[in-house]
């Protein structure tokens, strides 16, 4: 039996390729993929031929099925020693597969049992496919909590893309009274406020949140990865700024951040199962709504259309459908 996968063949081009379905090894399962949500930075970078991370080497054709990883599917076969899942069970990935292996942009994928969590039978794809993103954000939010910075009166989030929209919801779920989201895009600010997730401001308006003043944020999360944005947050935050966005340039910690209370700058703590379980719990309890993030649905065979929606900032995420006739 064969599987069909999307493969980036060169910069700005892809094909649907047909490959054999592997036999699952110990601790592995085969998933029949239902849908995958885009991870916009991965998709846009690879489409343009740019490395996602500094120093990353790109070679085309890229790994078949990659960079797909935000996945909902159904178990069709289990390997030796698999105990958590049975054939027919519906799951979402809380953790991505190493991109030297086939990714999930396709009809079937060989996945690892310990990177999956069970999900309800009847929920829409979009309610669970971004679980891996939610896990990533959760590790940052949990780190702020575990170090005593949360809950707080006021918290800020820079960038109201997918990661930022998850972050503002998680901060509210952890009891932050006033969550402030910053984005230069008026449409994204409106989107966040319409869903009641945060108070959304244009950073260019220079809002009165100065560090040391009565309106300063207690903590902030950067979902952009820019030195300028980190400086903006640091100048308006009392206690801690956590960096979630991929940082591609140096940031200077200035003398004024040292003065009491000294500002803590936190890097990314890394992925872990506890973050996946935390995100899963919030979705289950309806404190985290991932469905609205998928503003468009596109068959995987039209992957180029999905990327163009992202590049033009017309979509926040695109749900790529992988059912019969979609690939």
CATH architectural label of the largest domain: Alpha-Beta Complex
Q: How many domains make up the coordinates?
A: 2
Per CATH, the class of the largest domain reads: Alpha Beta
Structural category is alpha/beta
The span between the termini is 15 Å
- What's the story with the biggest beta sheet? 7 strands, mixed
Q: Please write the string of helix (H) and strand (E) elements.
A: EEEHEEEEHEHEHEEHEHEHEHE
Count of DSSP H/I helices: 8
Query: What is the fourth-level CATH superfamily of the largest domain?
Result: Medium-chain alcohol dehydrogenases, catalytic domain
Number of strands: 15
Fraction in helix: 10-25%
Give a summary of the structure in a few sentences.
The chain is of the alpha/beta class. 24% of the residues lie in helices and 27% in strands.
Q: What do these coordinates show?
A:
The chain is an alpha/beta fold. It has two domains: 2-130 and 290-321, Quinone Oxidoreductase, Chain A, domain 1; 133-266, NAD(P)-binding Rossmann-like Domain (Rossmann fold). It has eight helices and 15 strands. The strands form three sheets. Strands 3, 4, 5, 6, 7, 14 and 15 form a seven-stranded mixed sheet that branches. It is globular, with a radius of gyration of 20 Å.
Question: What's the SSE blueprint?
Answer:
Layout (H helix, E strand, L loop, with lengths): L1 E9 L2 E8 L7 E10 L2 H9 L21 E9 L11 E4 L14 E5 L3 E3 L12 H16 L7 E5 L3 H12 L4 E5 L3 H9 L4 E3 L15 E6 L4 H8 L2 E7 L11 H4 L5 E3 L6 H12 L9 E6 L3 H9 L5 E5 L6
Parallel strand pairs: 8-9, 8-11, 9-10, 11-12, 12-13, 14-15
Antiparallel strand pairs: 1-2, 3-4, 3-6, 3-15, 4-5, 5-7
